[in-house]
TrEMBL record:
It comes from Bacteroides eggerthii. This is Lipoprotein. Residues 336-358 are annotated as: Disordered. Residues 342-358 have a biased composition (Basic and acidic residues). It comes from the Bacteria.
Length: 478
């Protein structure tokens, strides 16, 4: 069965949020959380200072939209955006980071510019350089107070399509009213509790080293391309539900204003017309689920699983802002040092395969009543989940014990190693081949069929839909 697409899910949620958006903004304003500009104020023309209009500070508003697949975070488990009670309880506790930099590189601007030194907000509109941070927050994020100033401004998710809440006690970002046409790119990222290195603010990007262990989620994105959205509106093309509100406003504007927005992008000019950056967060890792099936025809034959890992390169570089927004994302070098990532339970904790005495908790054994069933229809044992770095260099490792003469004999102890290189074939929605290996933001299912202590061949079912595909290990072909 074809699973529901992200667009359809967001479409349903979006219309549920829309009727209360204005009320929500008013409540936030009253609570002092955002100083939000509603878009209803008269427009202020800087070329006509004597005219009427809002001449107060204009706050920067940034909205997030939900990523495509469910989020797995340590201690939170798999979070389904449609399960609002569970989703809201956990994702609201996460810390996101936001940057905004000039789009057109004026006067040799670099991404080393910091908001603390840019008092006129001409180059760096948003970062964390003016924010304070508590010791508790530092411990949770794995950074020092000084390091936090090199990161983006800390923000909290406030619901799909809603404006973020700034978490820090520092400044509230405002646009420069005197520079109506300064254009900015906006970026956001999330690194869960992954181990990270020092932030490197280079001429054309901001990045840091990152190491993952199979439980952390990495996300990042830049704001939607406003020029593309305007062209979609003018050509009558369908737009994603996330941007339907923006599209409706753009459609109402005169053609000359839309033309000017193509160069103004996100800034004072667009904010005054109630056009703000929307960032659809993108998962950078692959979500992999593993299941074991008993494939033996002998109900007396038992294979005990004592450990499961995926070995892959797990140290990379996370680019979270760039003069070329297409280059934000995480990169794991194919020739990097591999690490062993243990399978995780649905809470994000390492899955225990043995008890305190070393005895396997997961015997794989076919039941009498299942002998005549196709192996893929037999009851499966959950093998755990992984959040894997993208790449085509992974190996699946399965440690087993097998007793040929019940439990009185010495067991055969084996660690099977399955090379997953080229085992995964990714296709687009039309079935066209994209690449081999695990892709960030996609879901995969691995089915391992356990026949006994013998070697198992690797069989692969071609990827079908956007979920990435199913990998079948050891299923006998007819």
């Amino acid at each position: 069965m074809q699973r529901q697409t992200y667009r359809n899910k967001i479409h349903k949620r979006k219309y549920r949020h829309a009727p209360v958006l204005l009320l929500w903004c008013m409540l936030l304003l009253g609570a002092g959380c955002g100083n939000l500009y509603t878009g209803e104020e008269p427009l202020y023309d800087p070329n006509n200072p004597g005219g009427q209009g809002d001449q107060t500070q204009l706050p920067v508003m940034v909205a997030f939209s939900d990523p495509i697949y469910n989020v797995l975070t340590r201690g939170s488990g798999v979070l389904d955006p449609e399960d609002e009670e569970s989703f809201n309880k956990h994702i609201y506790d996460g810390t996101f980071f936001v940057y905004a930099f000039r789009r057109d590189n004026p006067n040799g601007m670099t991404y080393a510019h910091r908001r603390a030194e840019d008092t006129d907000r001409r180059y760096c509109l948003i970062d964390g350089s003016l924010d304070g941070i508590t010791d508790e927050e530092c411990a949770a994020l794995g950074i020092t107070a000084e390091q936090s100033k090199e990161h983006g401004k800390r923000a909290a998710y406030a619901g799909n399509g809603s404006f973020v809440n700034w978490k820090s006690s520092g400044y509230i970002p405002y646009y420069n009213l005197q520079e109506e046409f300064d254009a900015f790119n906006f970026f956001a990222y999330y690194y869960d509790n992954a181990k990270i290195g020092e932030v490197k603010r280079e001429a054309d990007r901001i990045c840091f080293d990152v190491t993952v262990d199979g439980s952390q989620d990495l996300m990042c994105a830049s704001a939607a391309d406003l020029k593309t959205l305007i062209e979609d509106v003018e050509n009558g093309r369908e737009v994603a539900a996330d941007y339907s509100e923006q599209a409706a406003r753009l459609k109402q504007l005169p053609a000359d204003e839309r033309q000017l927005m193509r160069s103004c992008y996100y800034g004072t000019y667009t904010a005054r017309r109630n056009i703000w950056p929307i960032i659809r967060m993108k998962h950078q890792l692959s979500y992999v689920k593993l299941k074991f099936y008993p494939a033996s025809q002998n109900p007396k034959e038992v294979v005990y699983i004592t450990g499961v890992w995926i070995e892959c390169v797990n140290k990379g570089v996370f680019t979270v802002a760039s003069s070329d927004p297409a280059k934000v994302g995480v990169y794991f070098p194919a020739d990097g040092e591999p690490g062993k990532l243990p399978s995780r339970d649905t809470e994000g904790n390492e899955k225990p395969w043995t008890d305190e005495n070393g005895k396997s908790l997961y015997p794989i054994q076919v039941k009498e009543e299942d002998v005549d069933k196709d192996v893929s229809r037999r009851p499966a044992t959950d093998g755990g989940v992984f959040l894997l770095p993208p790449g085509n260099n992974a190996k699946l490792l399965i440690s087993t014990e097998y007793y040929p003469n019940e439990t009185e004999s010495e067991p055969y102890i084996t660690t099977f190693s399955y090379d997953l290189k080229d085992a995964v074939h990714n296709k687009d929605e039309n079935g066209a081949y994209l690449s081999s290996g695990f892709m960030g933001g996609r879901e995969y299912s691995i089915s391992a069929y356990i026949y006994g202590p013998q070697e198992i061949k690797l069989n692969v079912q071609a990827a079908s839909w956007i979920n990435g595909g199913d990998i079948e290990i050891g299923e006998e072909k007819e």
